[in-house]
Amino acid sequence: HHQKLMNCKHRRYSVVHLQSYLHGGTSSLLSTIPTLVVFPVYKTVFRQQIHNSTVHRAVGQLYKEGPVKLYRGVVPPLLMRTLNGTLLFGLQDTLLRQTSLTSQTVIPTSALPALAGFGAGLVEAVVFTPFERVQNVLQNGQNDHQLPTLRSILVRLRSQRLALGYYRAFMPIAARNALGSSLYFGLKGPACSAVAGQGLPPVASSFVSGTLTSMAISLALYPLSVLVANMQAHVGGETKGVMACWRMLWESWQQSVALLYRGASLVILRSCITWGITTAIYDRQQKHSG
Q: Repeats (Solcar): which ranges (predicted)?
């Protein structure tokens, strides 16, 4: 009878684990609809990060390139967003359950979601750095002639060693993703409880908590995103290390934090939309399956 009970419990945990992956993928897939809508915004930010230009100049560049090229590079973020949600939410839930079972006295329970998020973020960086690399090469208009198709980019990256090809800028991506997901999962619950205390319904509370959390994270980690975009946008040529790239960037931004954060408001807008929707849908699915 005890064995039957254990088997039943194990099956129930397996289902819960699979549901977390499924719900993460579903919520992220649905949030790709606004990702499609705001992709031109994202591309404008990317051009600002690469060319240190104003919004007006970046929009002018995209307008001149035409509507066909406007959505060049949209496939990797759509694919990445769905797979990313599946892995991030599912893996965080799995790690959270494992750490809850093994570290009942060592680590405070309130810190476990953030710790599991940190681990999930590291795995996410390993899996998705190649996607981000391809996306950034595609979005850089300077590569259009030399690397006109997705296939030509893949062939070129494959010909280089991993650290310069698919895994260029892995260290800043790992730092950004691990810190970002740690903060997201650590802050999401308390933020949701605080918002719910103001009398908002559960879905609205989840949306607002996801929005506020992502806003704080985007602002804090924005310099790392700028560094990654600049390191990954080009293929070949002189390949500097992380610190050398950062020093060069900092000098090109005239050692000004205001210039470094040029375009950050658009990133906040995009994060608010996508992470607000993702959080609301995921929390609702988890609640109904629980």
A: 19-98, 108-194, 201-288
State how many domains the chain has.
Answer: 1
- For the entire predicted model, the pTM comes to 0.82
Please report, for residues 50, 63, 122, 226, the alpha-carbon distance to residue 234 in angstroms, rounded to integers and kept in the order given.
Answer: 10, 22, 24, 14
Domain hosting 99: range is 2-289
pLDDT of 84 higher than 90:
no
Task: Give 231-264 pLDDT, tens digit per residue.
Answer: 999 887 767 889 999 999 899 888 888 888 887 8
Q: Any residues with CB less than 8 A from the CB of 154 and at least 6 apart, and which? A: 134
Cβ–Cβ under 8 Å, residues 192 and 266 = no
Q: Decide: 72 and 137 in contact? Cβ < 8 Å.
A: no
Within the chain, strands assigned E span: none
Q: For residues 250 and 188, is the Cβ–Cβ distance under 8 A?
A: no
